[in-house]
């Protein structure tokens, strides 16, 4: 049977490459606990409290401080699949563009769904790191969006979030507004991963997965350490579906994400105004 010539390792690698390139939110978080995650796994994450700094004197350094620690769990509870058919695997592998395009589409769609899941973690933000509410959203246009992003950056600074590796994700309409502001740093190319420039220490990205609640955008800024994400494309298989004269390919992805540092993100609730 033709599907027996399918080489899963090669195509799984290609699928992973496209998947990683297509992520926006997923590339702005940490993968410290990636490992070999499987369906139903629970990853144990240990965190350590702050270290006290003292004055050194004739009494030396004294007894060692016992650090506070706690353990959080990252549940691998998201299971996503794809399942498509092609006329013949041998023909598909001979016509490399056909299978490449199919795998690219599968990788893009998997990344799109994972990004939507990560983006929704904005709900864990602490109250002092928010600007605007659902009841009273900030009215945003090209004249003030840049300033509001500066305000988000300030919120992160006031929360002692490191300046390196900060990000903010705006919707495409927000990117259009920023392009009308002369203060926005313009670059000759917009990268495939969505990077469009900087506002202060914030790297600015754009995504259509910026959450929208009742017409109000949730623009999340943060630091890479705030959210952890573990993902694995466990299997890619070819098979012969009983009802069709064709070969099919299916794959399974499992993942989980958790906001582990709520003070590490800041959220702007924005109503984007129409501009003529």
Would you mind describing this structure in some detail?
This protein is α+β, with helices and mostly antiparallel strands. It has two domains: 2-46 and 69-120 and 230-258; 124-226 and 263-272, hypothetical protein PF0899 fold (2-Layer Sandwich), CATH 3.30.2320.40. The chain is 24% helix and 32% strand. Strands 4, 5, 6, 7, 8, 9, 10 and 13 form an eight-stranded mixed sheet that branches. It has a three-stranded antiparallel sheet with strand order 3-12-11. Helix 1 (8-22) packs across helix 3. The protein is globular and about 80 Å long.
Main features:
276 residues, single chain, three-stranded antiparallel sheet, 24% helix, eight-stranded mixed sheet, alpha+beta, 2 domains, 13 strands, hypothetical protein PF0899 fold
Number of continuous helical runs? 5
Instruction: Give the beta-strand count.
Output: 13
Give the DSSP E fraction (strand runs of 2 or more residues).
Answer: 25-35%
Describe the sheet with the most strands. 8 strands, mixed
Radius of gyration: 23 Å
The percentage helix is 10-25%
* Shape verdict: globular
Secondary-structure-derived class: alpha+beta
Mean pLDDT across all amino acids: 87
How far the N terminus sits from the C terminus, by CA atoms, comes to 60 Å
The number of distinct structural domains comes to 2
Uncertain regions spanning at least 5 consecutive residues: none
Element-by-element helix/strand order = HEEEHHEEHEHEEEEEEE
